[in-house]
Amino acid sequence: MLQIVFLGTGSGIPTINRNHSSIYFHYEGWHALFDCGEGTQLQMLKAGINFMRINHIFITHWHADHWAGLIGLMQSMNLEKRRKPLYIHGPDAERFISDILDLDYWGPNFNIIPKSLPFEGSDITPVYKTEKFEIFSIPVKHSVPAVAYEFRERDRINVDIKKANELYGLRQGPLVGKLKKKGEILFRGQKIKLGDVSVIKKGLRVVYSGDTEPCENLIKIAKNADVLIHDATYIEQRDNRMHSGAKEAALIAKEANVNKLILTHFSRRYTDLKELEEEAKKIFPNTIIAKDLMKIDFRLER
């Protein structure tokens, strides 16, 4: 199960109800942040999240409303005697993390390891992987180097016990585990291949746009995703702002054929977000509005 907590859903200047951008991901013991705007560590405390569990932070771009919370968070981790390394991924990450660390007299007593990502071109780049999932990035179109991210759960191969029993008399037990591990087994004089009795459960895919104008790269990485979390700073795109509006986010979701659209990163001009939601739903009905400290659990059943 993947749990997502929206720690901040505001843009530029925060409001009483909307903190700067940050999203918490928790997947089977793995804890990470996507962006870390000012006040993120306080939002984590409100949400009951232990910030010491965070080992990876994925920054979409280096505008302060998406990264300024790193300074306080790293200081708090240091005061709590953290010793594990902290990995910070993002476009031009090595340059910016070096500058941030130079703001302190002594620096933290744990390693902070920047991982710079490509911010030009159209390639989808592997960023981080485990046995159960991978993180990818792709350049997007903003006023500074920026990337979008994808969380991609690996597909799972399960044995169809009913089919295995009907074809070969194989029932649930240790041999099923051996079949999944080895790919084939010998049972009652017959060779059983995993491909003959298996079903594939597609993994969950969640894409986070960061700040971007509509662009082909975002459609590329979000194609057929289960969830698209998208910048909706305004109702519609405004000249020279290099942000998307709710309408453009909905159009991207429709063209990419995603299942669900979640809008975030709202301008302070909107005290009531209903109009953004309504405009997006005209184009893409399965749209919801993110709110600070909103938690969503994703259990994918296919």
Q: In short, what is this structure?
A:
The protein folds into 2 domains: 2-155 and 202-298, Ribonuclease Z/Hydroxyacylglutathione hydrolase-like (Metallo-beta-lactamase, Chain A, 4-Layer Sandwich); 157-198, no CATH class. The protein is of the alpha/beta class. It has helices at 40-47, 64-67, 69-79, 93-101, 161-168, 174-182, 216-222, 246-256, 274-283, and strands at residues 2-8, 22-27, 30-34, 56-58, 86-91, 112-117, 125-129, 133-139, 147-153, 156-159, 184-187, 190-193, 198-201, 205-208, 227-231, 260-264, 287-289, 294-298.
Secondary structure blueprint with pairings:
Blueprint lengths: L1 E7 L13 E6 L2 E5 L5 H8 L8 E3 L5 H4 L1 H11 L6 E6 L1 H9 L10 E6 L7 E5 L3 E7 L7 E7 L2 E4 L1 H8 L5 H9 L1 E4 L2 E4 L4 E4 L3 E4 L7 H7 L4 E5 L14 H11 L3 E5 L9 H10 L3 E3 L4 E5 L4
Parallel strand pairs: 3-4, 4-5, 5-6, 14-15, 15-16, 16-17
Antiparallel strand pairs: 1-2, 1-18, 2-3, 7-8, 8-9, 9-14, 10-13, 11-12
Helix pairs in contact: 7-8, 8-9
